[in-house]
Design brief:
There is one protein chain. The protein has 17 helices and 24 strands. By secondary structure, it is of the alpha+beta class. Strands 12, 13, 16, 17, 18, 20, 21 and 24 form an eight-stranded antiparallel beta sheet that branches. Strands 5-11-10-7-8 form a five-stranded mixed beta sheet. It has a five-stranded antiparallel beta sheet with strand order 14-15-19-23-22, with no helix packed on it. It starts with 7 loop residues before the first strand and ends with a helix.
Length: 725
């Protein structure tokens, strides 16, 4: 092409192997720079040619052809157990053999796998069996090994894999009868831990045998001892993966992940202790540094099912502390993200998402150019999806972007308050090995989460996202909606967001109208209470309201007790004392004694907190009024604090506290104007200079919110009433 930047591409297939315009096996547009064909879509044992026409904006162009030959896998043979077809677990030596396999690309290599937990001698279809290599890839068609048993004593499925020199592979399944036997756990563990690193197949056999026996259980092995032995098994695997692993690709990656799956696939999640889960997560982390794209589907199956087993156990572990649960959830989130990036290393930029689904975890990964990210939609097999905002601005300098979408169907990944919650959806964008933080989008992105059943008219969805810094779920900035507002039939909730993190949905029951209100009244009240206690601001307001009602009743009762026959004597004393204080401030001798006296008077007279319990007898500003003023001050301070904390310009806690105190200083005095009372004429005094602040003591007391109350002159109405009397 010439110098124009407007380059176009168009692919064709001159050999006629595929019709690129209509065949569904073509996963990318024929006008894309890269052409991606689905796995196993090309005819085998055939020469195929693809051509691409490249043109610029001025019709200058060129044609490039790519020609290759599709290799056929080995065929024509069979595999079996030679001689011995039944035996005892971890005791009988079986001779696994293959014969009759033909291929033009020699030599052939053979490996053998055991599917642990399938039962009935057939391949597992329920997603609950672990495939573990027991004889590594070699030129020998025979493998002599002991075998573990299934938990129910059913035939054990063996898978033989035959690979030619170019990598084309065939599989052959057969089964053998292996009867379980009672194991001396300590002796078997010692044998396992003493096996040389040069015998990875023997390690697999003994490891899976122990896992199988611990699943079956034994009357002599109680639940506590079983949990400890499962932890020991996981610790052994972690130690094994810390040492040098075999160089063969099947054992380097598939063996540790297969064993990890075998060590986490227990009937009861509580059999995986916190220690067991910790070692398991470390094994999974170590495996993300290996070659993950060689057996992508098998690796994803073992990896994600192991992580899913751990997530289910962690979610149901009531003995774990909040901090421990948060750390485990963060670890699982990190593993899913790293696994996605590693497995995308073998993909083509722009090809359709890689999707893997297991009973607990569903994921979709896609590698895109930065310009392809805005507006992109990624969807997992279970329907969880993310549509990235078209306003997202992605830098093209740091290379392609990995879009990570993971759904963990184990209630919620991170701890939540009591309530009805969906699973968690993880959304991340990774570029250059780091996570992209996309905030402040003018057009929100959409994250859709599946729910088990339609919401109905009386359930409201509430989208939440995990705030890592505060370690809590938050609804701030999220909008929750149901597609088409079809609450009766929709099985998805869409969260509109301006950033990506981990999301979940709380399903909150709402009160139905009309006659059915009493049916769900208890559920609605419980949901309202749960909503209150799960939101710190609402919880604070609720507590303060209850506290105000309680203290107001106590203050009213206290005031009523004081309104006795002594009250008529206390009132004159109060006003006389008030006048004496005023005269002392004007005419008294300055000194420490006067300062202490004035301070004590000011604290009991006007301090927002102290005066509630120590006000002067006869003061017209009673305890109930002072309680009201105090709670107004508290609410005002809390409101100002919240306003300052959400401002990006005020981040320091000390600065917030000082600024709040300054802004709240006049509030008690302004609010007390509602209760102000003029001085009765018989207690009023006249000052020659007209009153006002005239000494430093009063100024200091005023600044510290302890100033004595202002003495008011009698009103004209009171003077007229006095004259009439």
């Amino acid at each position: 092409p010439g110098e124009s930047d407007e380059i176009t591409y168009r692919w064709s297939n001159p050999s006629g192997a595929l019709n690129l315009e209509t065949n569904t096996a073509v996963l990318t547009p024929i006008t894309a720079p890269s052409l991606v064909i689905a796995e196993n879509a090309l005819p085998i044992d055939r020469s195929i040619t693809f051509a691409v026409t490249i043109q610029d904006g001025v019709d200058a162009g060129s044609i490039t052809e790519i020609q290759f030959f599709t290799n056929a896998p080995p065929g024509g043979g069979s595999c079996f157990s030679d001689g011995v077809t039944s035996g005892i677990a971890l005791e009988t030596i079986f001779s696994l053999s293959c014969t009759g396999w033909i291929d033009v690309n020699l030599p052939l290599r053979y490996s053998f796998y055991v599917e642990q937990g399938a039962g009935k001698g057939t391949r597992s279809t329920d997603g609950k069996a672990a495939v573990v290599p027991i004889c590594e890839l070699s030129n020998s068609p025979t493998c002599e090994t002991q075998l573990p048993s299934n938990r129910d004593g059913s035939p054990v499925l063996i898978e033989a894999r035959i690979v030619d020199i170019l990598g084309a592979r065939s599989s052959f399944d057969f089964s053998v009868s292996v009867a379980p036997r009672a194991l001396d756990l300590n002796a078997t563990f010692m044998t396992l831990e003493r096996l040389p690193r040069s015998s990875p197949g023997a390690y697999s056999v003994y490891f899976v045998g122990l896992a199988s026996w611990l699943r079956i259980g034994d009357a002599a092995v109680n639940d506590t001892l079983r949990v400890l032995n499962v932890a020991r098994l996981q610790r052994s695997l972690w130690n094994y993966t810390q040492n040098a692993m075999p160089d063969t690709e099947d054992f380097a990656v598939l063996q540790p992940l297969g064993l990890l799956e075998a060590a986490t696939s227990f009937l009861f999640t509580e059999e995986l202790s916190l220690e067991t889960r910790g070692f398991g997560l470390q094994v999974a982390l170590n495996s993300t540094t290996s070659r993950l794209n060689t057996f992508a589907a098998e690796i994803a199956r073992a990896y994600l099912r192991s992580i899913g087993n751990i997530a289910e156990s962690a979610n149901s572990d009531t003995s774990a502390t909040f901090e421990q649960s948060v750390r485990e959830a963060a670890f699982i989130e990190e593993l899913i993200s790293k696994f996605g990036s590693r497995i995308l290393d073998g993909s083509v930029i722009g090809e359709p998402p890689l999707r893997f689904n297991t009973p607990v975890i569903n994921v979709a990964f896609q590698r895109l150019l930065p310009k392809q990210v805005p507006g992109a939609t990624i969807r997992a097999s279970n329907g969880a999806s993310v549509r990235i905002s078209r306003s997202a601005n992605i830098s093209a300098v740091s290379g392609p972007v990995d879009v990570i979408l993971g759904y963990v169907d184990a209630s919620t990944l991170y701890p939540v308050p009591v309530g009805n919650w969906t699973g968690s959806t993880i959304v991340q964008l990774i570029q250059g090995g780091g996570t992209l933080n996309i905030n402040g989008l003018s057009v929100p992105s959409n994250v859709s989460l599946p729910i088990l059943q339609p919401l109905g008219m009386f359930t409201a969805p509430s989208c939440n996202f995990w705030v890592e810094e505060q370690r809590l779920w938050s609804v701030e900035g999220l909008q929750s909606r149901v597609p088409g507002d079809d609450f009766e039939n929709s099985l998805f909730v869409t969260c509109e967001t301006s950033h990506f993190t981990t999301f979940t949905v709380e399903l909150v029951a709402v009160s139905p109208p009309g006659d059915v209100e009493d049916v769900d009244s208890e559920a609605s009240a419980a949901s309202t209470f749960l909503l209150i206690i799960s939101r710190p601001t609402m919880l604070f307001c609720f507590v303060m309201l209850v506290a105000y009602v309680v203290f107001s009743l106590l203050a009213h009762w206290h005031d009523e007790r004081r309104m006795g026959r002594m009250y008529s004597k206390w009132v004159p004393r109060f006003w006389r004392k008030s006048n004496n204080v005023l005269l002392s401030l004007r005419e008294g001798e300055r000194g420490s004694e006067l300062c202490m006296e004035m301070t004590g008077w000011g604290l009991r007279r006007s301090h927002s907190w102290i005066s509630v319990c120590s006000r002067h007898h006869g003061d017209y500003l009673n305890s109930f009024k002072r309680i009201t003023i105090l709670f107004v001050l508290i609410f005002a301070a809390a409101t100002i604090c919240c306003a300052l904390l959400v401002m990006s310009t005020v981040e320091d806690a000390a600065s917030v506290a000082v600024l709040t105190a300054a802004l709240c200083l006049p509030i008690p005095y302004l609010f007390s104007l509602m209760f102000v009372r003029v001085v009765p004429k018989q207690y009023a005094i006249s000052l020659e200079d007209g009153g006002g602040i005239s000494c430093c003591i009063q100024i200091i007391l005023l600044v510290t919110t302890m100033a004595p109350g202002h003495v008011l002159q009698p009103s004209e109405e009171e003077e007229e009433e006095e004259e009439e009397e």
